[in-house]
Amino acid sequence: MTDIRRTVLWVVFTASLFLLWDGWQRHNGHPSMFSPAPRPVAAASAPAGAANAGVPAAAASTGAAAPTAAAPAAAPSEKVTIRTDVLTVTVDTLGGDIVRAELPKYLTSPDPTVTDQLLQMVHLKQPAPFTPEPVVLFNAAQHYRAQTGLVSAQGPLPAHTTPMTVVAGERELKDGQDEIKLRLESAEVGGVKLVKTFTFKRGAYTVGVTHEVINAGAAPVTPQVYLQLVRDGSTVTGGAAFTPSFTGPAVYNDKTKFKTIKFEDIDKNKVDIEKTANDGWVSMVQHYFASAWLVNEPGNREFFVRKLPGQVGLRADTYATGMVFTLPTLAPGASTTQSATLFAGPQEENNLAKLAPGLERVKDYGMLTIIAEPLFWLLDKLHGLIGNWGWTIVALVLLLKIALYGLNASAYRSMAKMKALAPRINDLKERYKDKPQEMQQEMMRIYREEKVNPIGGCLPIFAQMPIFMALYWVLLSTVEMRQAPWILWITDLSVRDPYFILPLLMMASSLFQVWLNPPAADPMQQKMMWIMPVAFGIMFFVFPAGLVLYWLTNNILSIAQQWMINKQLGVN
């Protein structure tokens, strides 16, 4: 039974570590051990100025599909930059696209690889100076932009390929101001004029976008407003040391609920979403950050996720997700307005939940969402009291130890008794080495007499492993912990320890736990008991410092509890 207990323990722990390792590899841009390698990146990037995605077709409710328009090769274009306290947004007058969004409060950070550090040590070179820059969402390199425009089955209307004129106004949010507006006006297309008004507010990662549609023609028209997010699917971005846990479109509505769509599924035409609903939003998700078109007022809308046809200035692997809204039929001289909100910012869970129903779901917790969500809630409450994410993780371990004290104490008593019984069990195995059945019966008799559960020592691992893996995803996904310092050399809990001090301490504590545990009867298994902590400790070298801190704190508290129980039972 002892051998079975140890086998089960190591199988669970090994499988969990392999899953974490596989997740880490995928988070660092490497292919999963369990899936094919990702598609190669396209060879060349097209000029940014011409990167215009196709105009979506008119929704089915209006009849035949509208023609797809392309921007004239020499269409005039002016870049207008608006600055607030939390956003620096660039708007292209060609269609009124938002083509760049910088987040000055979220900076990039270096994360040199182990190889880079070793080379620097060997050659005695200092790392090159690094100047953090703001995180950028919409950008030309990835053909990532937010677009809106009009379509109609009756003919072309002003779209995101239509040149627009800027109305004079302020470009920077000044002290004492709460908001600024940017107004763009199109010329008439198909007898219809489109006026876009962008509203930027202090402290907000949202941009209000109002579409005023004016029928200046001689015939009635039924326009539709489309809102779409476009980006290149062959490149991914991430903060600090990580690449995104998921990069791609996401759709939420009352029928589909929340669904992420992989780029490769779009290529294979395997997009399974409800195309019409009365509410919902669309998003482009990446690690730590997201963009989304939000319209919270109930009203019929059509959703789409598609790969865009190749055009001049547009990569062949560019994708769009969006919504189409049908507006009332406008008589000549009539006008109407439609309002939407563009979110472009960090995945701060509490703030996302306030912006739109289900928007917090863009934060990817992987398979363990059911554990990760309450775990983050607890961490968030503790951080509100403590103010430091490192000490918050320590406090979390302490609370979990208190909650699981009875289970852990029972397991450690069982392990202490097993250690005390080790000489008798070894003697028994020696006497009955040729009679395995009788030996097993005698061992079970001894366990019953001494009230020892031979697999009781596995219970703490079984209880801790789901929490450990859920915390892994919380650390990977929580932007609040991005670049969060703890003490001294730990300046970012979301990336690995730069000097590997925490992993070494964790390895040492794991070896000390092996010494406290009862020795295995099989010599080979006993060697493995000492080798495995070293092997797994090396794997922890590349895990986030916050995760290693969690496991190290857990080890230290476990050692203290087991040491006290061993002393109480007189076990050395």
Automatic annotation (TrEMBL):
Membrane topology field: Multi-pass membrane protein
Record bears the keyword Cell membrane: yes
Domain Membrane insertase YidC/Oxa/ALB C-terminal intervals: 389-567
Entry-linked InterPro entries: Membr_insert_YidC, Membr_insert_YidC_N, YidC/ALB3/OXA1/COX18, YidC/Oxa/ALB_C, YidC_ALB_C, YidC_periplasmic_sf
Transmembrane intervals: 7-24, 389-409, 452-475, 528-552
A GO term from the CC aspect: plasma membrane
UniProt xrefs under Gene3D superfamilies: 2.70.98.90
Gene Ontology molecular function: any one: membrane insertase activity
Organism domain of life: Bacteria
Domain Membrane insertase YidC N-terminal: 80-378
One Pfam family hit: 60KD_IMP
GO biological process, one term: protein insertion into membrane
Key word Flavoprotein present: no
Function (record text): Required for the insertion and/or proper folding and/or complex formation of integral membrane proteins into the membrane. Involved in integration of membrane proteins that insert both dependently and independently of the Sec translocase complex, as well as at least some lipoproteins. Aids folding of multispanning membrane proteins.
NCBIfam families linked: PRK01318.1-3 (NF002352), yidC_nterm (TIGR03593), yidC_oxa1_cterm (TIGR03592)
Similarity comment: family membership: Belongs to the OXA1/ALB3/YidC family. Type 1 subfamily.
PANTHER family, A to Z: CYTOCHROME C OXIDASE ASSEMBLY PROTEIN COX18, MITOCHONDRIAL, OXA1
HAMAP family, alphabetized: YidC_type1
The protein, known as: Membrane protein insertase YidC
